[in-house]
Design a protein that fits this description.
The protein is of the alpha/beta class. About 40% of the residues lie in helices and about 15% in strands. It folds into 2 domains: about 190 residues, Rossmann fold (3-Layer(aba) Sandwich); about 190 residues, Phosphofructokinase domain (Rossmann fold). It has a 7-stranded mixed sheet, sandwiched between helices. The chain has a 4-stranded parallel sheet with strand order 7-8-6-9, with helices on both faces. The chain starts with a strand and ends with a helix.
Length: about 400
């Protein structure tokens, strides 16, 4: 039977997935391998009758520049009891290529260990994908999809900023990010937003709605001092990951709840929550400001990849073949700024349970320090006297005091 490789995609979409599938397929087809695309991620891999596609040159060549994923994706995270060697042995699979984020990488690590224990000799190489940029790659190396999603986020956000100026309103934007604030930080810094709020900021204090709202109002009052009645604040959805269920429930927002009694955050607009709480607080303070919510998430995930990600994804795809030829397995493929391909072994970046640890925004890094200290607009002690024209106790809005910095 002809030797084959199998490719699957897990998690949510990110610009560049098709570029990776294309480049991996083309380089292995050139070497005489059969290339099997698996639909529905791990769910498809371990299904009784998996839905697959034999990828040929024309298919691979055609999808390279497209957004979305030619292979249907799934967030299914299989239990160890679901694992099987059947697909691999039935199709003479020599390599499993997984494209995804930290959950997909963690599962790939588990599968790799399972196959070794069951004397199935295949290699496994993971391609790190997420618009959240939160996989623990070497410093300065992004996850693919991040730059394309950020570019689209900036395009949308710039029109929102112009709408704010034109209409004299404030907008509250919420950006995807799970535990990390890379996307919100990148978009906000590129657009020169007066306020950026990410979970990593709360390294000295607990994350609460009161603190988040006060940070936004700090920017609003600072702009008022400067005679500007409009603006935009961007908040990473990752702040929710560091809040207690009690804090979320006490917000006054109506939630649905999952089978474990936890609020189902995926069913609500985070921007709406922040905006409602902001409006209530502004009303209590007697500050007249109109604000509107905007969600940045699904609009960013399936855009066509930018030139950066097209090139980067090509290098990652070809890099898979390079690592395969070197006999590497149980690793992520990385490509640095000059195209140097290196393996990053999953065991080296996973905890004792095998879960890959997320990369957070480095709050002590030069970029973060400059943006937060010099790029944002907020109330400081030197503003207190002027701020009293708008709020009785300006100390409540002291940016650094709110964060315990």
């Amino acid at each position: 039977m002809k030797e084959s490789i199998a490719i699957l995609c897990g998690g949510g979409p990110a610009p560049g997935i098709n570029s990776v599938i294309s480049s991996v397929s083309l380089v292995f087809l050139k070497s005489g391998y059969r290339v099997i695309g698996i639909h529905e991620g791990y769910k498809g891999l371990f299904a009784q009758n998996p839905t697959t596609i034999d990828i040929d040159f024309n298919f691979a060549d055609d999808i390279h520049k497209q957004g979305g994923s030619a292979l249907q994706m799934s967030r299914h995270k299989p239990k160890d009891s679901e694992f099987s060697t059947k697909f691999f042995t039935d199709n003479n699979v020599q390599l499993l290529v997984t494209i995804g984020g930290d959950d997909t990488a963690s599962t790939a690590n588990r599968i790799s260990k399972y196959l070794r224990k069951n004397d199935v000799s295949i290699q496994n190489i993971h391609v790190p994908k997420t618009i959240d940029n939160d996989l623990p790659l070497p410093p300065g190396i992004p996850t693919f999809g991040y730059h394309s999603a950020k570019q689209e986020g900036v395009r949308i956000s710039q029109t929102i900023y112009e709408d704010a100026r034109t209409s004299g309103n404030w907008f509250v934007l919420s950006a995807m990010g799970r535990e990390a604030g890379h996307l919100a930080f990148g978009i906000g810094a590129a657009c020169h937003f007066p306020m950026i709020i990410i979970p990593e900021m709360f390294d000295k204090v607990e994350v609460t709605f009161d603190r988040i709202v006060n940070l936004v109002i700090s920017a609003i009052v600072k702009r008022k001092i400067e005679g500007i009645d409009y603006g935009v604040a961007i908040i990473s959805e990752g702040v929710f990951h560091f809040m207690s269920d009690e804090e979320i429930e006490n917000s006054g927002i109506d939630f649905t709840y999952d089978d474990h009694g936890h609020p189902e955050l995926g069913n609500v607009s985070k921007a709406h929550i922040f905006n409602v709480l902001l409006q209530n607080r502004l009303k209590d303070l007697g500050i007249s400001v109109k604000s509107r919510p905007v969600e940045l998430g699904y609009e960013l995930r399936c855009v066509q990849p930018t030139a950066y990600d097209l090139m980067y994804c090509g290098m990652l795809g070809f890099g898979v073949k390079k690592l395969y030829d070197e006999g590497r397995t149980g690793c992520m493929v990385t490509a640095d700024t000059v195209g140097k391909i290196r393996p990053l072994y999953l065991d080296d970046v996973a905890d004792e349970q095998g879960k890959v640890q997320p990369r957070l925004v480095d709050m002590q890094g030069d970029k973060s320090q400059m943006v937060f200290n010099d790029g944002l607009q907020f109330v400081e002690p030197g503003d207190f006297s002027k701020a009293k024209n708008f709020i009785e106790d300006p100390a409540e809005l002291d940016f650094r005091a709110i964060l315990g910095w």
